[in-house]
Design goal:
356 residues; alpha/beta; 34% helix; 19% strand; disordered N terminus
Length: 356
C-alpha cells in the first residue's frame, strides 16, 4: 500500500516530458518494461476456473500508450489472481469511442477513453447524441495528457495549421477519439466539406509509412508524448510538427472543461522549437454494473505497483496519485474506486466523487 502521497501540482499548461529522451523503438522497449513490471511477482497456482471472474480491457493502437498500459494492468492483476480471483485480458480496439460503445453493449468491461469523449458519452452529446446519455458510465482513474499532434514531412510547404485546408490528412480510424476530436476542432474553424474532401482514416500502424511515402500529406493524432509513432516516423523520413493554436483553440478551451493547453517540448524529438497545441486526459472507465470488488481489485493492484507502472512509458512518468484519482473525469467515480481513494485521502470524504 502506498503510504506517502505526492503533492498535487496541476499547471495551467501541461509540458509533456521534461528531459531529452533516448531514441529507442518504444514498441520494443515496452515489451522489456512489461516484463520488468511483473518481475519478482509471486504468480502462485491459479484459482479454479469456476472461482475466477474474467474481465476485458479495451485499449487502442499498439504504438500508443493505451495498449501497453492495458497490458501492464492485466499482468499486474493476473499475477495475484490466485488471491482475488480476477483474471484480466486486453483487446486492441479503434480507441475511445469504440471502447465506450463496447462497454455500453457489454462487449468489454473496461476501456481507455479520452476525457472529452468520456464527457460526451456521459451526457449524450456530440458523437453520442443519437445513442443518448450513457448514465451508467463510471470513471476509474486518469492517466497522462494526450496532445493534439499534426505531423508533416519536412520537405513540404505546410507551415501552419491553416495551410492544411484541402490537404490529404489521416485524422484517425472510425471509432477513434482522434477522429472525433478532429471534427470538433474543425467545427470551430468553419472549414467546409471541400476543405476536408481529402481526409482518410488510416490505422495508427499505417501512418508512418503513409506519410513518408507521400500517400498522405499529414496525420493528426491525440497521443501521449514521447510517442513511439513519432519516433517511428522520424526513422523513415524527416518530419515537422505543426502547432494548433489561435482563436479556434481558445474557443474550445473556454467552452469545455476537458480540453487544456499543452506544449510538446522541442527536445523530445529534436525539433526546431516547442510546439503549442491543446490536449485531453486519458481516462480508464467502466460501467456502473461492474461489481465494486472487481474495480477495487484493479485499482489496488496498480497502486501496489505504482512506481513500476509509471516506468512503463515516459508519458506516464509525471503521473501522481492525486491526478490518477480525479483529474479530467466527467463521469462519477465507480464506488469500488471511490471507496479506496477515500481511504487513501485522495478524494474528499464529504460526498464528492472526484469528477468534474
Amino acid at each position: 500500500m502506498v503510504n506517502i502521497l505526492p503533492n498535487l501540482l496541476r499547471p495551467a499548461v501541461h509540458r509533456i516530458g521534461a528531459a531529452v529522451m533516448p531514441k529507442p523503438r518504444w514498441p520494443v522497449l515496452t515489451l522489456l518494461l512489461l516484463t520488468a513490471v511483473v518481475a519478482g511477482f509471486d504468480s502462485s497456482a491459479p484459482s479454479r476456473a469456476a472461482d475466477q471472474q474474467f474481465v476485458t480491457i479495451g485499449t487502442g493502437g499498439v504504438t500508443g500508450v493505451y495498449y501497453p498500459s492495458g497490458g501492464a494492468t492485466c499482468k499486474i492483476v493476473n499475477a495475484s489472481r490466485a488471491v482475488h480471483g480476477v483474471r484480466c485480458s486486453v483487446e486492441t480496439t479503434s480507441g475511445s469511442i469504440d471502447n465506450i460503445d463496447k462497454i455500453r453493449s457489454g462487449e468489454i468491461d473496461f476501456g481507455y477513453v479520452q476525457s472529452d469523449w468520456q464527457s460526451h458519452a456521459y451526457h449524450g452529446t456530440s458523437a453520442f447524441e443519437t445513442a443518448g446519455p450513457f448514465s451508467d458510465l463510471r470513471s476509474v482513474f486518469s492517466l497522462h495528457t494526450e496532445v493534439a499532434t499534426v505531423v508533416v514531412r519536412q520537405d513540404t510547404g505546410f507551415q501552419t495549421f491553416a495551410d492544411l485546408k484541402q490537404a490529404r490528412i489521416s485524422v484517425g480510424s472510425k471509432g477513434s477519439g482522434s477522429a472525433a476530436s478532429w471534427h470538433a476542432l474543425i467545427s470551430q474553424l468553419g472549414w467546409t466539406a471541400t476543405d476536408q474532401a481529402n481526409l482518410s482514416g488510416l490505422k495508427t500502424s499505417e501512418l508512418a509509412e503513409a506519410l513518408c511515402s507521400g500517400s498522405v500529406d499529414a496525420y493528426f493524432v491525440l497521443i501521449g508524448h514521447p510517442a513511439g509513432l513519432i519516433e517511428e516516423t522520424q526513422e523513415k523520413c524527416a518530419i515537422r510538427l505543426i502547432g494548433i493554436e489561435g482563436a479556434a483553440v481558445d474557443s474550445l478551451l473556454e467552452e469545455t472543461s476537458y480540453y487544456m493547453p499543452a506544449v510538446i517540448p522541442a527536445d523530445l524529438y529534436n525539433l526546431d522549437g516547442p510546439v503549442n497545441s491543446f490536449g485531453v486526459v486519458a481516462t480508464f472507465v467502466t460501467s456502473a454494473k461492474m461489481p465494486d470488488a472487481i474495480v477495487r481489485t484493479m485499482v489496488q493492484a496498480l497502486l501496489d505497483h505504482f512506481d513500476s507502472f509509471k516506468r512503463l512509458h515516459p508519458a506516464l512518468s509525471n503521473l501522481s496519485l492525486q491526478d490518477m484519482a480525479g483529474h479530467g473525469m466527467s463521469a462519477p467515480l465507480h464506488p469500488g474506486a471511490l471507496t479506496l481513494y477515500r481511504e487513501l485521502g485522495l478524494v474528499p470524504a464529504d460526498g464528492t466523487d472526484g469528477s468534474d
